[in-house]
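Shapes recur. One chain:

:::
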Amino acid sequence: MINDMERRRMYQLQQQAPIPHKVVCIREKHNRPPFYGKEFHGMISREQTDIYLNDREGAYLVRESQRAPGTFTLCMRFGGVTKNFKLYYDGQHFVGEKRFYSIHDLVADGLIALYLEMKAGDYIAMMCNESNYELSPYMTLNSRRRKRNRPDPASPDFYERPPGDVVTKTEEILAAAFERNSINVQNYEKTHVFKVHNFKGLHWCDFCGNFMWGLIAQGVKCEDCGFGAHKKCSENVPNDCCPDLKHVTRVYGTDLTTLVKAHNTVRPFVVDMCIKQIEHRGLGAEGLYRVSGFNDDIEALRLTIDKDGEDSDISRDAYEDINVIAGVLKLYFRLLPIPLITFDAYPLFLAAIRKPSQEEKLPFLKEAIMTLPPAHYQTLKYLMAHLYRVAERSKENLMPTHNLSTVFCPTLMRSPDLGTPDLSVWKYESAAIEMLITHQKILFD
């Protein structure tokens, strides 16, 4: 088991690492590349390099290769020997993955890495595997957050309703399900979105608790929840990302599961808001979802929702045209990076709808639905119940299930194949959406 003293040792070792000493070339080098300074010594031999470095720990210089003119080598003294690295420049200097604006910083970071590897190589190799994730600071914090955000089992959503607000029939149906079995959104499985990160100041790994050494790119950080870890440690982190609103700054174009976990709602709040408005005042509108709203209004409302979130005003006073509300709802689904019917589930839906009889299609379609991530499942269930109610008013709005499936098919289902779209598949996609609407009570029971 790793103790606190061992964790602190990594920071102490970084402080003890050799510091860079530039070996200045006293002769003018007319062929010196503009991105090198006086550490550039031109085309010199390895023997000359050793002489210039003078057996001083941390001493470094840059030379041009004698065997391959036009290529450059970073030479630095460490552990009593000269280390040679091929040196590259593309606007920044690099010998590996990390990139630096100065040779000095590159050498300083390299000396730290070499020193820690020499002094604590065995410990570094085992620290990720020996760490207990259940006892990590991140896990402790998230456990508290999950308890704090546990939903009210009698509520179909997680925001307060204004006095006198309309509860739609769809929401009444779903509320009964919540009373029987509350849904804790924070338990939805979600992968972390790790990106290499430059941590400012001193930082310790949220997984193993060890110091994250180096000057830049010390590790990775999740873009959605802020989890910071060594790159190696991040490979052992489970899919339990709990997005934080300070990291999730927009609604449109954000992964669906990320959004619902960040806002602690079973479905994306924008879906609930729009459907509530449409069911309250627009179910009878002719051509609902087929007739487009004014593009400028749709774009303005999208920007408002991205900025104001659940406080956005989408009432009749703000947007009298219900087609604008329908438009921003369709736009939300269209901009999802992973469609509502996910890429993984897509072939299962097509396989189900291609079965010869309805008796065979329904059970296979239900199996396909059950493969969806929980947030996608809950959203699809809610949307299909809503579209069923739209179709019930088709004598007024002229939007039966076939018309609705035609409109929503390209928005909800996208082939994972990035090649030329197969137009022959469209009829199966549309048929799948139509069956989801028509048989939503059976399929989502």
Summary: The domain at 4-125 is CATH 3.30.505.10 (SHC Adaptor Protein). The beta strands are 21-22, 59-64, 72-78, 81-89, 93-94, 194-197, 219-222, 228-229. The mean pLDDT is 87. The first strand starts at residue 21 and ends at 22.
